[in-house]
Amino acid sequence: MARVTVEDCVDKVPNRFELVLLAAHRARSIANGSAITIDPDNDKNPVVALREIAERTIPPEDMREALIHSIQKNVEVDEPEAAAAPVLPQDRRGPILGRDDQSSDTQVDVLTEEQLLRGLESMTPSEPSSNGGSGGPRERGR
Question: Residues 43-55: pLDDT tens digits?
Answer without folding.
Answer: 999 999 999 999 9
